[in-house]
């Protein structure tokens, strides 16, 4: 039946029976919050991506400038080392820039003269070794023929070496590595120039740098910064003093050995061993001992072996006896702390960390020591590590008391019976 006008305009009719189904919510209202993205989520995603990008950019930039930061750190400690001399000259009326220039110029002249003298000695010894190489080879061949009943000849050995594949490959690799060596030398020179310039500015403009740093701090913080700076100067100077003293002792010990063996240029070689072994960390000992061994080999190959043995023995004595004692006296830190700081500095920054670790740790320890409250230690034997005389169960005193009591007991009844 076709719907009429009344039924067409009446709308949907309710069912006759059963529960009424819920009406669907109208679209475009606040009734469906779960179907939409929260407004804060896009901003949070953009902020997270920006933070990750900034972290990656900062990490990349830090790795790019880490070499410069290490050079600045070395320059800062070098400036701390020369600042007492510069301040002393400036206190007498000399301009601070001129005083810094004179100090660095004196150091440059001393190092240049020292290494020039060593270079001339080394070049002369190398020429002498090359000229005397046939004699050394003949002596070795004669010893081998005598000891092992062989029939070796120097001509055969030389021809074998000249026509060997090993020598050809070594010559090719050496020719290919000339460019790499030149690049490393130029990079080292640029690094030394960078350190020298920064250390010159730090030493010459030390008061201005401290003034600029203190100008952004409150008065209480200014006093702490100035005190930390003064402690760093004292500890760095003490560390260099200990290194200089160990260089003097090492040079004197090696000078006695070289003089006893009759090695030429003994004074210069002794100075070389003392300076290089103390002021070049990690590999300084091996560099220092290589040159005396080389020159001793030109005199007698057995002398080179004696020099090697002495260098190894003295290095152990210095590491375990001399260095901990001197370092603990000059920079006022425990020998175990000094040894651990060198290991930690080497692990973090390599040779540079080994060189500056001890003055850095000594400065930090002295600065933090002012904020640690200390109390009087109780008078206890466990604190002192031993009992004082007359305290505690001393075995000898205990034996005397037991002997006295035994005599009194044996003498008591007899005295009473009499």
Automatic annotation (TrEMBL):
<feature type="transmembrane region" description="Helical">
    <location>
        <begin position="337"/>
        <end position="364"/>
    </location>
</feature>
<keyword id="KW-0472">Membrane</keyword>
<dbReference type="Pfam" id="PF01594">
    <property type="entry name" value="AI-2E_transport"/>
</dbReference>
<protein>
    <submittedName>
        <fullName>AI-2E family transporter</fullName>
    </submittedName>
</protein>
<keyword id="KW-1133">Transmembrane helix</keyword>
<feature type="transmembrane region" description="Helical">
    <location>
        <begin position="98"/>
        <end position="127"/>
    </location>
</feature>
<comment type="similarity">
    <text>Belongs to the autoinducer-2 exporter (AI-2E) (TC 2.A.86) family.</text>
</comment>
<keyword id="KW-0813">Transport</keyword>
<feature type="region of interest" description="Disordered">
    <location>
        <begin position="1"/>
        <end position="35"/>
    </location>
</feature>
<keyword id="KW-0812">Transmembrane</keyword>
<feature type="transmembrane region" description="Helical">
    <location>
        <begin position="44"/>
        <end position="62"/>
    </location>
</feature>
<dbReference type="InterPro" id="IPR002549">
    <property type="entry name" value="AI-2E-like"/>
</dbReference>
<feature type="transmembrane region" description="Helical">
    <location>
        <begin position="68"/>
        <end position="86"/>
    </location>
</feature>
<feature type="compositionally biased region" description="Pro residues">
    <location>
        <begin position="18"/>
        <end position="27"/>
    </location>
</feature>
<feature type="transmembrane region" description="Helical">
    <location>
        <begin position="185"/>
        <end position="204"/>
    </location>
</feature>
<feature type="transmembrane region" description="Helical">
    <location>
        <begin position="301"/>
        <end position="317"/>
    </location>
</feature>
<keyword id="KW-1003">Cell membrane</keyword>
């Amino acid at each position: 039946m076709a719907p009429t006008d009344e039924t067409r305009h009446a709308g949907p009719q309710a069912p006759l029976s059963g529960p009424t189904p819920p009406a669907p919510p109208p679209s475009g209202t606040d009734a469906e919050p779960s179907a939409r993205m929260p407004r804060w989520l896009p901003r949070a995603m953009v902020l997270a991506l920006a933070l990750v990008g900034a972290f990656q950019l900062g990490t990349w930039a830090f790795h790019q400038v880490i070499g410069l930061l290490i050079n600045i750190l070395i320059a800062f400690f070098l400036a701390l080392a020369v600042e007492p001399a510069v301040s002393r000259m400036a206190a007498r009326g000399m301009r601070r820039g001129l005083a810094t220039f004179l100090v660095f110029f004196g150091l440059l002249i001393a190092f240049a003269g020292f290494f020039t003298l060593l270079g001339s000695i080394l070049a002369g010894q190398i020429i002498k070794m090359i000229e005397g190489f046939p004699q050394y080879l003949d002596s070795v061949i004669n010893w081998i023929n005598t000891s092992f009943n062989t029939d070796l000849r120097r001509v055969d050995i030389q021809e074998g070496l000249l026509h060997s594949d090993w020598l050809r490959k070594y010559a090719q690799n050496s020719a290919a590595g000339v460019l790499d060596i030149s690049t490393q030398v130029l990079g080292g020179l640029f690094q030394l120039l960078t350190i020298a310039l920064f250390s010159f500015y730090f030493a010459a403009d030390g008061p201005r740098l401290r003034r600029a740093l203190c100008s952004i701090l409150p008065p209480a913080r200014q006093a702490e910064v100035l005190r930390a700076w003064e402690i760093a100067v004292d500890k760095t100077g003490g560390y260099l003093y200990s290194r200089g003293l160990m260089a003097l002792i090492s040079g004197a010990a090696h000078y006695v050995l070289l003089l006893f063996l009759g090695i030429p240029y003994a004074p210069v070689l002794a100075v070389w061993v003392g300076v290089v072994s103390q002021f070049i960390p990690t590999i300084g000992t091996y560099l220092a001992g290589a040159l005396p061994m080389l020159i001793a080999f030109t005199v007698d190959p057995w002398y080179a072996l004696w020099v090697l043995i002495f260098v190894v023995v003295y290095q152990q004595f210095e590491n375990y006896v001399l260095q901990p004692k001197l370092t603990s006296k000059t920079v006022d830190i425990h020998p175990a702390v000094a040894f651990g700081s060198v290991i930690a500095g080497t692990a973090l920054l390599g040779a540079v960390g080994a060189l500056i670790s001890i003055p850095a740790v000594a400065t930090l320890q002295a600065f933090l020591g002012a904020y640690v409250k200390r109390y009087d230690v109780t008078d206890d034997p466990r604190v002192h590590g031993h009992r004082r005389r007359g305290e505690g169960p001393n075995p000898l005193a205990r034996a005397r008391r037991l002997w006295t009591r035994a005599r009194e007991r044996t003498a008591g009844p007899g005295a009473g019976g009499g």
